Every structure is written in C-alpha cells, then in structure tokens.
Amino acid sequence: MVSFRYILKQAAKKEEVTVSVAGAEDLEVLHAVHMAISSELANFILVGDERKITELIAANFPELVESGSVVIRHAVSSAEAAMKAVKAVSEGEASVLMKGQIETAPLLKEVLNKEYGLRTGSVLSHVALFEVPSLERSIFVTDAGMNVEPDLQQKVHIIRNAVEIAHVIGINLPRVAPLAAVEVINSAMKATIDAAALTQMNRRGQITGCIVDGPLALDNAISMEAAKHKSVGGEVAGRADILVVPTLESGNILYKSLMYFGNSQVGSIIAGAKAPIVLTSRADSAQSKLNSLALAICSSN
Questions:
Q1: Which of 18, 95, 10, 34 lies closest to 290, judged by CA?
Q2: What count of other Cβ atoms lies within 10 Å of the Cβ of residue 301?
Q3: Where in the numbering of this chain does the Phosphate acetyl/butaryl transferase domain appear (predicted)?
Q4: Which residue from 24, 64, 152, 249 lies 20 to 30 Å from 32 (Cα-Cα)?
Q5: Spans of all domains in the chain
C-alpha cells in the first residue's frame, strides 16, 4: 500500500520547496505548517493578517520564529492574500499554493487570472487520496471538488490529472474505474455512456499511462469478491486505484463517507495548474492538511 507515511518520506527528499499560503491566520493551518517544517518538508510564505499570524505563532508555535523557514507577508483582505500568494508561485518564489483561512472563490479567481495566474489550458480537477483501513490499501477519488457535472472531454482531463499524481507516488500503471450505478451501458444513464467511451479511448491510446475499464459500480470497482459474485471481469474490477465519479455531488458524498464512516486518512490537491494547489476544507484537520501538503510537494516541479 502507498501510505501517507511513505508519501511524507518521499516529500522530505525534495529539495528547496517553498509553499505559499493564502490566509495563514488560522491555528490548524499553522499547525500543519509547523508539522511540515518539523518534518523538513518545505519553507513557507505566510500571507494574511500579519498581526494575527504573528500572535498565533507566538502563542502556539514560537519555535517557528527561530526556524528561518517562515516569511510573513501582510494582506488587508482575502482578495489581497489570494493575489499575493498566487503571485509568489507564478513569479517562482514558491512551487506549491495552499489555501488557508479564506474562501475558495477568491483564491481560484487569482489562480485563473490571465495576467499572472496558474492556468495551463488543462481542466483543473480535485484529486484526493484516501488511506482506507477496511481496504488495507490507498485509493484515489476524483473529482470531488471542482467540476460540477463534467462532460466527456473534461473527464479525460480529470483522469489524466489523477494518473499523473498516481505516477508521482509510484503507481506506474494505475487502474481507473469510471463509476456508475450499474455495469452495463444504459442510454438513460449518462455516466454509463461516458464510462464506456473513456474505456474505448484508453484502448485506442487517447488516454495513456493507465488502464481504464467501466462502467463499474463502486462495489465491483473495489471488491474482488463482489466482482466475482456478479461475474464482472476485466483488469480493473475489484482492483481500482482511481475512482472517477460522475458528478461533484456523488464525489462529495463518497469523499465524506470515506472520512466520517470509513475513518480514512486523506490528502487532496487541485491538479492541472502550473503548480499543485492544496485546497483543503477549512474544517479539515492539521493531519489532513499535512497529508495534502506532502502529496503536493511530491507533485511539484
């Protein structure tokens, strides 16, 4: 199993990584920063209300002041914090962008800025890695955070983004399962039609670096026993590394089910930009933020 312990070790091997944090005046964010610096993962540019950031560090992580690994840049608003954090990445001062205590919208607005943003022409997509105790392995879920109802071409980009991250952490030929409610093609169920098209595109070399097979229901994608019982064959059934959800709603439900019902560890990033973006929820724990940072650092150039 590719565990977060392994990913943290791999991230620590990267040299001269700096993370730019938009809205760093948050205890959980600073806790993750402290954990990352203690693990020698990266240096940080902390953008936000300088007084609040300084007070939080002094009260909770005073050793950060002496570490030499933190630079604080003042911003009077969320919009300014987002702008300065994104510019730090686009101008080469940092190689990872991280969302702190700000809303997602102003950060993504700056990411997509035509003058200094991080656009590449690819679709931005949310890639989450779960360490699932009941499966005794890790599995990706995408896209649970960006694209509301992706069309076929967007799903191609979503798969490519996830496959690229899988390669980075050592899964050389990930098995990709486009999910649906059933395993057969049904003209009334768009997810099944898209899944079949993605499978054929993979076989014809239009999607490379992975094995795509679908449509697959969730049970047949992750459980060999379920796939065998239902006579669902193929190279992906029961062994999927990447679950491609049909819509953001279904992805969000699966994501939170794995967290709250499955007691899974998670790390997630936004892929498809010039640099990986850590876009965790403000409610996520410091450990989840650290996992996401490690995944982003491994994915950075």
A1: 34
A2: 9
A3: 4-55, 71-297
A4: 249
A5: 4-119+274-299, 125-261
Architecture of domain 4-119+274-299: 3-Layer(aba) Sandwich (3.40)
Q: Are 39 and 66 in contact (CB under 8 A)?
A: no
Question: Among all chains, which residue has been given the structure tokens 């806790």?
Answer: 31
* Domain 4-119+274-299 shares a fold with domain 125-261: yes
User: Which superfamily is assigned to 125-261 in CATH?
Assistant: Isopropylmalate Dehydrogenase (3.40.718.10)
Mind listing the pLDDT tens digit for each residue in 3-23?
Answer: 999 999 999 999 889 999 999
Mean pLDDT of the chain: 94
Local structure of 211: helix, strand or coil: strand
Angstrom distance (rounded) from CA 262 to CA 58: 36
Residue-wise pLDDT tens digits, 222-250: 999 999 998 888 999 999 999 999 999 99
Dig out the tokens for 198 from the structure. 């993605």
User: How many C-beta atoms lie closer than 10 Å to residue 63's C-beta?
Assistant: 10
Q: Using alpha carbons only, give the angle 170, 69, 63 rounded to the nearest 5 degrees.
A: 115
Q: What is the pLDDT of residues 59-108, one digit of tens each?
A: 999 988 888 899 999 999 999 999 999 999 999 999 999 999 899 999 99
